[in-house]
Design goal:
- The chain has 342 residues and is of the alpha/beta class.
- It is 36% helix and 17% strand.
- The chain contains eleven helices and 15 strands.
- Strands 3-2-1-4-5-8-13 form a seven-stranded parallel sheet, with helices on both faces.
- It is globular.
- The two termini are 33 Å apart.
């Protein structure tokens, strides 16, 4: 297929690009190379790739990039939590308006196949299990409780501690920060486009992605990159809250394989897919694994918190496995060892 990959010069995008090329697709990449993401690192497209240096909101550039294209993989986005209210306009413009511009251009060009990079953050705190009330959605986190070191969200009905539960794709969406809100908006815009045009959408809700090429020491760095950078400076990784936050850390090569599988196989309707390893671990687990691998100082639990963070979010990726025959290949221990060697 001839495909357009937006954000192809980014962390995940470069791995998706490599996977597309290995599968024999003809790839066009559109990326603005925004300096707050790339920090002066020069990216050169492979010889076989046609590169369009442009913002996804640029209608003329989109028209050129979409000529003859059969499918779009949309990864271009402003990422991070959006901790500062001042970031809201950039999230809304880059992610919401950018996706809307892309979808309008796809409609004009007659492109009817979209693979969208979404995120597990669309679920907020996800679902917890209360012994009395069963599956419940935790209430928004309370800053006074966080200040007091009470990190676990209670049952919103009786206040009892909640047990762990995996979140399926049909769970209610509950975005709790600017980035999450923009990802929900992207999914809704894509669904609207699909209804009007008859197009197909595979919305891939990535979990905590790590691996080679992670941005380091930037606003876009994930927790794995932050911990690794600290350890390589000889410093203890600083773990927020008590380190018990549950996440699903999934290797970027597995994410790229899932993204390409969705592009190739999903050709009708709108479908969301959770993309995770299937093995929840805590943030403290990751910090300890990296400290061992890098022979660095043990993690320091700080008790610090960010109100926009969620305590736990781990989702069920069975749909992706069952419908697209995808399986994660990189074991957590191997991925941590690989990070230590980077």
């Amino acid at each position: 297929m001839k495909v357009l990959l937006t954000g192809g010069a980014g962390f995940i995008g470069q791995h998706v690009l490599r996977a597309l090329m290995q599968r024999g697709h003809e790839v066009h990449v559109l990326d603005s190379l925004r300096p707050d993401v790339h920090r002066g690192v020069r990216w050169i497209a492979p010889r076989e790739v046609t590169f369009h240096k442009a913002d996804v909101r640029d209608g003329e550039a989109l028209e050129r990039a979409l000529a003859g294209v059969e499918a779009v993989l949309h990864l271009a986005a402003k990422v991070g939590l959006g901790v500062d209210v001042g970031d809201l306009p950039d999230y809304a413009s880059s992610n919401d308006a950018g996706t809307a511009a892309l979808l309008a251009a796809m409609a004009r060009a007659g492109v009817r196949r979209l693979t969208l990079a979404s995120s597990m953050v669309v679920y907020g705190e996800g679902v917890g299990h209360c012994p009395t009330h069963g599956a419940v959605r935790p209430a928004p986190r309370n800053e006074s409780a966080l200040r007091a070191g009470q990190y676990e969200p209670p049952c919103p009905h009786c206040g009892a501690p909640l047990g762990a539960a995996l979140v399926g794709e049909d769970a209610a969406l509950d975005p709790r920060n600017a980035y999450a809100s923009s990802k929900v908006a992207q999914e809704f815009y894509a669904a609207n486009w699909a209804r009007v045009t008859g197009g197909s959408v595979a919305a891939l809700r990535y979990h905590n992605v790590y691996g080679p090429g992670m941005p380091r020491d930037t606003p876009y760095a994930g927790v794995a990159a932050i911990f690794t950078s600290a350890l390589k400076r000889g410093e203890a990784p600083k773990v927020f809250e008590d380190g018990g936050q549950r996440r699903d850390f999934v290797h970027v090569r597995d994410v790229a394989a899932a993204t390409v599988a969705a592009c190739e196989q999903h050709g009708a309707g709108v479908r969301a897919f959770n993309v995770g390893s299937g093995t929840p671990r805590t943030v403290g687990d990751m910090a300890c694994a990296l400290a061992r691998a890098l022979r660095g100082p043990p993690p320091k639990v700080t008790g610090h918190y960010r109100l926009g963070d969620v305590r736990h979010i781990t989702a069920d990726s069975a749909r992706l496995r069952d419908e697209l025959r995808w399986q994660p290949q990189v074991r957590f221990e191997d991925g941590m060892a690989e990070l230590a060697g980077i």
